[in-house]
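Exercise 7. Given the encoded structure of a 135-residue chain, write a plausible sequence.
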């Protein structure tokens, strides 16, 4: 069995990671985090907002991703994310404002508030802040 798998991470705006030989990855699946190693059983999963980490060449890399899909094959993992950011690309002040807005919406008793959307926004903002702190 191979010691690595090919990793690609793509968003509608850009290709974040291309043909990286990764030793392992942690992916934020819809039902929890998935640990991926070379030779993993094939699967397709929905992504949620979270920190995606992978190790390549002995170095661990972290990205903030939000929503999309992951295709896992024994020798290749493809991540199709709505958004993905490296720690240095994250605007922490903007993420903190988004977090405050989401928390305010969730605390309100306004019947017009889309609570599912506010919870998604809060989860994404918290992930962005956490990943940015790992610079």
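Solution.
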């Amino acid at each position: 069995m191979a010691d690595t798998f090919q990793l690609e991470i793509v968003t509608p705006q850009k290709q974040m990671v291309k043909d990286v030989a990764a030793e392992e990855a942690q992916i934020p699946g819809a039902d929890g985090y998935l640990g991926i190693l070379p030779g993993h059983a094939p699967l397709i999963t929905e992504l949620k907002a979270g920190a995606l980490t992978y190790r390549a060449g002995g170095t661990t890399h972290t990205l903030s991703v939000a929503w999309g899909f992951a295709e896992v094959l024994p020798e290749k993992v493809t991540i199709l994310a709505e958004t993905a950011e490296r720690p240095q690309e994250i605007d922490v002040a903007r993420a903190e404002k988004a977090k405050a807005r989401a928390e305010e919406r969730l605390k309100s008793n306004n019947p017009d508030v889309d609570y599912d959307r506010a919870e998604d926004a809060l989860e994404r903002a918290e992930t962005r802040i956490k990943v940015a702190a790992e610079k």
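Remark. The chain has two helices and eight strands. Students should compare their own answers with the one above.
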